[in-house]
Write the structure tokens for this entry.
Amino acid sequence: MPLSPRFQARAIQLLLGATMARVHKDLRFAEVPKHTETLQVETGAGPVTCTVYRPSGTAPVGPPAPVYVNFHGGGFIVGRPEQDDHLCRRIAATAGCVVINVDYAVAPQRPFPAAVTQAYDVTAWVAANGDKGGWDGSRLAVGGHSAGANLAATVCRTARDRGTFSPRLQILDSGPLDMVTDPAAKLSRTEKPLLTPRLMRIFTDAYAPDRAGRADPLVSPGLADDLAGLAPALVITAENDRLRDEGDAYAKALDAAGVPVTHRVFEGVDHYFTHTGPVPAGKEAITLMASTLRTALGA
């Protein structure tokens, strides 16, 4: 008897979670800032713990720094926000903004829409509580990596639809944006891709077990046809990534809808290269994120 998707997802969490969250040693960036803080935000799907990184040398007086809300990856089932520690530190240090790294709920324990609800509610709280947190909530951006890119896109969509806040930028790094198409139909340009169809099915079945609901734009942002008015975007895709084509298509669709888009395809790399390398490409992509953020936020 085949194992249930829930059981397979739990096995990945227990056996492979640490491996999936591993970052190449030459991409780590531990020096700045020297200290981080934690805060807890109440949401409609339960409390969420976040790690706060502040730019070094932030003056105790004067205008507060802008803020960037980050969502980690892990196929919606690996809850290890520390995998983005290197990104958060580098962005805080070089983009001149406060970074909020969100420890959102993961499947199969908490399937859709728990993570979407938490991602939006945390970002809305950050936008509204700059005075309490010590940042400028009116100068806000969101972003994410792999599954986190999907969540960042849903935050921007929900913010637009509710008219609550206006992110100045969304960073979408190698996101799964089409949860309807079978993974085997998604092209890989390398013989040994990081993402296999079997692994991707486990992710999708755990996160969105209701197949009929996978076309919902809050599950599959790339299938939406009403993209006008979304936040300006930096879309990063990897040449050999099985998710590349849907990322490329989303960038084109945003542009066609009048959304300002910067789109960069990094050649010769696979999924999650910003974490696993090759190091030169990973560093270049992270630098691109930081510089684009700095410009968008006026840091």
User: Anything to note?
Assistant: The mean pLDDT is 93.
